[in-house]
Amino acid sequence: MKSNIIGASIVTALLLTLFFIDFQTIGISENMRYFIGRFHPLVLHIPIGALVGVLVLEVIDMLSPKIKLAQASHILLWFSIISIIPAIFAGLLIGSTGGYREELLNEHKNLGFATAFISVALLVVRVVLNKKERKSVIFWIYRVGLFGCVIILSLAGHEGGSLTHGTTYLTEYMPEGMKATFNIEKPEIDPQEAALLEELEALQKAEDTEDTSVEQTTVEETSADATAESTTQDVPKEEPKKDEPKKVDTQKAVATVKDQTTTTKVDPKATVKDVATTDVKADEPKAVATPTVDPKVEEEKKKKAAALAAKKQNLETYIKKIKPIMESYCYSCHGVDKQRAHIRLDTVHTNFSIASHKESWQGVLEQIEIGEMPPEGKATFTAEEKKEIIDWIKLNLGKS
Predict the structure, then answer these.
(1) Average pLDDT, 10 consecutive residues per value, the chain (400 residues)
(2) Where exactly are the structural domains of the chain?
(3) Which of 125, 251, 264, 329 pairs with 400 at a CA distance of 20 to 30 A?
């Protein structure tokens, strides 16, 4: 019994030391942290299986005491505690490399340590139980505690899976009926997609405004031409008769001059014939001025409309084709929950004129072309998908 208590104390002290160590500042290189840390998914299954095995043995021992599995449970519980230490150590190393969602990482870490500390406490209780009756209160506390420890272990595993595969990994393809039963809501549209759709809507409105402006200009030109033509047609053209001099009514011309003396000054030296001619010119219809359209302005409007249309088409291509490819092969390692090598691609903008985003797309292109991404062992692009994303990136890099 004494040796068990000493061993439990040493393990507790070691766990506390690991909990408070900052592995980013203790001098272990990043490459070494990656190397050791990547064994975490491998070694963590050992304590998980052993702890679940302890629970199974205790249930069997409770149902069939004659089998006498108490000593086997004790040994397996010790094995669980010992094997959990390297699993925690490797997990802390890989977590210190960064690229993980901080909140989720801390939850996973705390649940893992809680499992370890509870396991040590259960070991101490188990040692005390060797001297007690199985029907004692302490024995039932041990059983309930063991069951709770396995539940916490399961939650820690779920958080770890979320870090590796994303928070919707288990529910993404769940049948709709099951989602309704477990009240699992559909994930809300992510902020990037909402921003893209908003930008697309703005481009559509701008494009519609440009189209309306061009149409209005065309209608005004057509209307002005029609008015001018109509005015010209309404004025009858009198062709003078050949060889027949124009007759001027002298008395009528003189009367007209008298009527206009209040508003029009007449040159006293002017002849009656001159006055009559002036009166005839005044009755002629005035020409309607046709509005002129600056060709340069029209050319600018057309260029602007074409640029808007091209930008809208490019954004639609990204939303409908490129983004789904990125979601399938890239976001699980470079998305909201995990950012391997400190790279996050779900927030990279389609505006290649922004230097940081352009640099990110250049990196994506390079990794795809040399075959590094997606990495070996992961699902990869089809030939068509690979060509589509490479062509799209190169097209936009060429424009920027």
Answers:
(1) 88 94 87 92 93 93 86 92 95 86 89 95 83 70 92 92 76 80 65 63 68 53 49 48 48 47 46 46 53 72 78 84 88 78 81 83 89 81 90 87
(2) 2-181, 306-399
(3) 329
